[in-house]
Design goal:
The protein is α+β, with helices and mostly antiparallel strands. Helix content is 34%, strand content 22%. The protein contains seven helices and six strands; from the N terminus they run αββββαααβαααβ. The chain has helices at residues 5-16, 72-82, 94-104, 117-121, 141-144, 150-160, 162-171; strands at 20-27, 30-37, 43-49, 55-60, 134-140, 173-178. The mean pLDDT is 93.
Amino acid sequence: MKLDGLVELYKSMKTQGIDRYRFEYKCGRAVFDVFFFIDGSPFLLLFGVKAENFSFEIEVHNGFVIDHKLDNDTYKRLCEILGLEYDPERPFSPWNFFSEFNSKIPGAAIATQAAKPHDVALYKRIVEEEDKKYFVGWRDNKKWGTNVQQSNLDKTRELMGERAYKRCKEKNISSCWSDQKDQAIDVSLP
């Protein structure tokens, strides 16, 4: 299935230098934070349901093509979230869900809606210091005679993307995090 609604959003993100974008999508009784990540290959859509502990990811391949099929657990949970009752005559169709979503994708990115690491952290399972989701800076491990830990690299990849991950791995740099929102700073690569 092609999500051609992503084309203009992608162009707008590229023009503005935005690798990770967040927008809202309403369907049924659910309100989603949808993240569009274009910093890896394939691209990725992360659907996170506000006020629920539920999220799922969809890979976006060349030509903005997705596989609209969902695994059974995701399918069932999404039906619950949307407030749907089973009807054998008219079962829930992921194709219809993504078709409707495609028609609601914003045509342009707004710079203030670029996804911040702590936005993403709400919907990702983070192993390393999961309560610390606010980015506060970088640590050059060469200066300390230490090495960046794999768990920190994994957290960096999940919350900041592939480019930050690669840069940290190559330069032996750790991302630093806090549990205090007022300490958060804007991300710029080391």
